[in-house]
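S1.2 Input.
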Amino acid sequence: MSSRKRTWREIEDLTFFGCLSTNSPEQKNLSPRVLHLFNLIVIEMPAMKAINHIVGSLCETLVLNWPSSIQIYSKDISTALIEISLRIFKHLRPTPMKA
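S1.3 Output.
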């Protein structure tokens, strides 16, 4: 939706770039210049079941080119990746923006 006219726009040839972030107060400090140049989409953290499915699917695809002796550990690898990521998110909080 256009912020000025409040009308819907059609989007063609979309390139979507995403990154992980937390809901930190620093996000509210984005300059109007950035908001004018880019469209920001905030997506809530998916449920653990969805995260397990997403990471599991990616991991299964990744290990296809690996030896079969490693492929059998695909589920264990995806579980470990999720566990490590969640610990990082919990214990290594983002650095506050510098003024």
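S1.4 Remarks. The CA atoms of residues 56 and 78 lie 5 Å apart.
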